[in-house]
Amino acid sequence: EALATADHANDRERLHLRALGHWADGHVLAAAQVWDRLLAADPLDLLALKMHHYTTFWTGRANVLLSTVEGVLDAWTESTPGYDHVLGMHAFGLNETGRYERAEAVGREAVSRNAEDLWSIHAVAHALEMQGEHRRGDEFLSTRGDRWSSKNPFVGHVWWHAALFPWNAGDYDRVLALYDERLRPASTDFFLDIQNLSSLLTRLELLGVDVGDRWAELGDHAAARTGDHVLSFTDVHCALTLARTGRLDDLDAYLVSLEKHRASVPSGLESLGVERAIDIGRSLASSAAGDHREAATALGAIRSDIAPIGGSHAQRDLFDLLLIDMTVEAGDLEMACFLLRSRVARWSTSVPSWQRYAEALDAAGCDGAAHDARNRAREISRR
Questions:
Q1: Helix axis angle, 292-302 relative to 313-329, nearest 10°?
Q2: What integer best gives the mean pLDDT of the chain?
Q3: Looking at beta carbons, which pairs linking 130-136 to residues 24 or more positions away fall under 8 Å?
Q4: Could you tell me which residues come within 8 angstroms of residue 43 by beta carbon, excluding any fewer than 6 positions away?
Q5: Measured between alpha carbons, how far apart are the two ends of the chain, in Å?
Q6: pLDDT tens digits for 46-69?
Q7: Which helix (H) or strand (E) holds 342?
Q8: How far apart are CA 132 and CA 350, in angstroms?
Q9: Number of Cβ atoms within 10 Å of the Cβ of 188
Q10: What pLDDT is attached to residue 266?
Q11: CA angle, residues 35, 41, 43, in degrees to nearest 5
Q12: List of residues 6+ apart from 204 with CB closer than 8 A
């Protein structure tokens, strides 16, 4: 229908239409190039900027996420309508390139200008999470949730962030309460809900927390998505859900479908994202079948190269946790301790990371180091 009106469109409208066509055909990078052209001509084109930001995020290109916003920032002033949204995108780009303190400052400015913008709120939550500021993050989000009942489905992802703060503090009962009271009641088969819920349940189960029957509905949603492949990040969470629920036949069918999908995806970054999703899916299938060594080998081979599946650093951290679990289950305690040393160095205020490290050290016979790690977990939890 849009194409039928193209003869009457102006230059900007035609470029937007071209970008939309590329995106609909699965050529995400080609669409981004057109949005680049639009922003070069008019840095105040908020639609082009937001679409660029969205698709760049789902292809894992952190540097581009930041540089595109910074390429237009000088054209915006405090009085320009939409400035608060641009600040929120800037904050998120800063966060994904490791500039966490600056990301928090810019994000808080965005929220001060528009307290209802979930993306800006979410950017601040990311910055606090990545700095290990779990108490401050908890306080920041807990003062806002009562105003979110009318918000769009992205609110579920912000509640996911709210649950990460008590998870890192070792308060797993509170995580389950947030799951039941905030995330699950609003959940559907929407792709973000599948991502949020399966990720959170997995994080709990890897720590030995009994999540009851909470997986059942997610397994049905994931199986129903076989053949429906748009975002690689959703694909890996559907595969994860089928693996965690023991639906191995459904998982096999899902991976076969994903293989067929790869043939239709443009070569390059888009194809790499699908390939990485298949690699992760196969690793999950091996683990679910009891071959943890094969699973750990497969996931370990790509652990530093999964950004093309999309998502944020905080979201992709799940796959580090899964790799550690596979390594422990495979009995490779030397490698497990190595991975956990790296983890506690990076996430030094995470109670579950220190607890898991202590368990691995115990199993490896390193009693003194295990005692120290356990004490570290207790010290953090009392803060």
A1: 150
A2: 95
A3: 130/95, 130/98, 130/100, 130/313, 130/314, 131/100, 131/101, 131/104, 132/168, 132/347, 132/348, 132/349, 132/350, 133/349, 134/165, 134/166, 134/168, 134/169, 134/349, 135/165, 135/169, 135/383
A4: 71, 72, 74, 75, 76
A5: 59
A6: 999 999 999 999 999 999 999 999
A7: helix 333-346
A8: 7
A9: 12
A10: 81
A11: 75
A12: 167, 172, 175, 176, 211
Length of the chain: 383
Mean pLDDT of 184-201: 89
DSSP output for 247-273: -HHHHHHHHHHHHHHHTTSPTTHHHHH
The pTM is what? 0.95
Q: Tokens 């129903």 appear where?
A: 224
CB-based contact 338:347 (threshold 8 Å): no
Residues 239 and 280: beta-carbon distance below 8 Å: yes
Mean pLDDT of 209-232: 94
DSSP classification of residue 8: G
Give the helix ranges, DSSP H, for 25-133.
28-41, 46-57, 62-72, 83-96, 100-113, 118-130
Closest CA to 99 of 53, 121, 131, 140: 131
Burial (CB count <10 Å: 0-12, 13-18, 19+), residue 57: buried
Report the C-alpha gap between 2 and 233 in whole angstroms.
Answer: 29
Q: Which long-range contacts (CB under 8 A, 24 or more apart) does 97-101 make?
A: 97/62, 97/63, 97/65, 97/66, 98/130, 100/127, 100/130, 100/131, 101/127, 101/131
- In whole angstroms, give the CA distance from residue 178 to residue 215: 16
